[in-house]
Design brief:
The protein is an alpha+beta fold. The protein is built from 13 helices and 14 strands. GO terms for molecular function: diguanylate cyclase activity.
Length: 425
């Protein structure tokens, strides 16, 4: 028989079931049915005990199905997130790869500079970006590419001494750096120089510096910097390291291209323009002078008694004389004037926007300086002089004829005593 306590409990449970209609409370409903079944069992009401237990099991099955659906949804959500994440990573890697191909194929320094800067800004936040080339023989980092607050700045050169700069650390250790609080972390890399509080306030707070490596040799450094603390992640570092490998190749390609271009235009011994370059440049200046009515003079310069120098002191001495004479002339001609090695011991000078008198004054200064200089050959000191022929190009005289007339003036100077200037116009 049911007593009053059983009846009271039964009514409370049944009232609770009636009040709970929402599927969200199915777990509570399952528990109520379970306890009701126990209540009926104790009161020997087995029929209702069975019914409540059956409803409890039914609620459990609903819970089980809901859990599986929720789990499935959660897994699908995780999968969608993973797919989106991997797609984002793939897109970044593809962008870096395409950028790398663009950089390694580009041989224009100015174009390369702006391409790399604009693309780096898409990868990470930055206030400063720089690429430095390591000049091993000088132990210097030559930062040829420097941007700060979107402005291209002049290059910076710094000595590579371990413990004195972040760039030096990268070069000496062939390792990268990620700093997210400069004030707290710099001493791990810069320990031979004390950075004061004012400098730390003005300097970047977060920095990534990466060595540019080729065949495990450090050829330079690439760095991005931000004035914000905690600006960079390891993911940023890894992306920039991939890009740095392309930058290293691109910088080497630029270097080789510029070297090849230099050798195509300059005489190896004297570092003056070679014959082809000075003649093509001279023709261009000649055309401009004709179009605009500028003065133009050509001078032919020949080292006197050069064969005797080679015969008496050796070809090494002759090379030394040529280099020294060329250095004196390059240093003492005008900013708009050009010099090239015409052949053997003969040079040509293009005097741009100068008349015969102005060109003669410069040539006389060159002649005196060369004559007064001493040229040390081993333990001996010898003298050298030059003869110069000058011609002012005017009217309808062609550039090639101007050279011919200057050469004829040079011939007169050589035949009438050497170490002199002969001018014609």
């Amino acid at each position: 028989m049911k007593n009053n306590n059983y009846d009271k409990c039964e009514n409370i449970f049944l009232d609770a079931i009636n009040r709970i209609g929402c599927r969200e409370y199915i777990l509570i409903k399952e528990r109520i049915y379970y306890y009701l079944s126990k209540l009926y069992e104790k009161s020997l009401d087995y029929e209702n005990a069975y019914k409540c237990l059956k409803n409890s099991v039914k609620c459990k099955n609903i819970l089980k199905n809901d859990s599986q659906v929720s789990l499935k949804r959660l897994k699908e959500k995780d999968m969608i997130y993973a797919v989106q994440k991997y797609k984002s990573l793939y897109d970044k890697m593809e962008r870096i790869s395409n950028l790398g191909k663009t950089l390694t194929a580009n041989l224009d320094v100015e174009k390369f500079t702006y391409i790399i800067y604009e693309e780096i800004k898409k990868l990470v936040m930055l206030d400063t970006f720089a690429i430095g080339i390591y000049e091993k023989n000088k132990k210097e980092l030559n930062y040829k590419i420097v941007f700060k607050n979107d402005k291209k700045l002049p290059g910076i050169v710094s000595k590579v001494e371990e413990g004195k700069s972040l760039g030096a650390y990268c070069i000496c250790n062939k390792n990268d750096i990620i700093i997210n609080n400069m004030a707290k972390e710099y001493s791990k890399y810069i320990y031979k120089v004390k950075i004061n509080k004012k400098q730390l306030q003005e300097e970047a707070k977060s920095i990534i510096s990466i060595p540019l490596l080729l065949d495990n040799e450090a050829t330079g450094v690439m760095t991005v910097q931000s004035h914000k603390i905690n600006a960079y992640t390891n993911e940023d570092l890894n992306e920039l390291k991939i890009l740095a490998s392309y930058v290293a190749i691109a910088m080497r390609n630029l270097q080789l291209f510029n070297e090849a271009k230099h050798f195509a235009e300059y005489d190896v011994l004297t570092e003056c323009f070679n014959r082809n370059k000075i003649l093509s440049l001279g023709k261009k200046i000649y055309d401009e002078s004709k179009e605009n009515g500028y003065d133009l003079c050509v001078a032919m310069v020949d080292v006197d008694n050069f064969k005797s120098i080679n015969d008496n002191y050796g070809h090494g001495a002759g090379d030394h004389i040529l280099k020294s004479v060329a250095r004196i002339m390059k240093k003492n001609i005008g900013d708009n004037d050009y010099i090239g090695r015409y052949g053997g011991e003969e040079f040509i000078i293009i005097f741009n926007k100068k008349n015969i008198e102005q060109a003669s004054d410069i040539c006389e200064n060159l002649r005196r300086r060369i004559e007064k200089s001493k040229y040390n050959i081993g333990d001996r000191s010898i003298n050298a002089t030059v003869s110069i022929g000058i011609f002012e190009i005017h009217d309808n005289i062609s550039f090639s004829d101007g050279i011919k007339y200057a050469d004829e003036s040079l011939y007169v100077a050589k035949k009438t005593g050497k170490n002199k200037i002969v001018k014609t116009s």
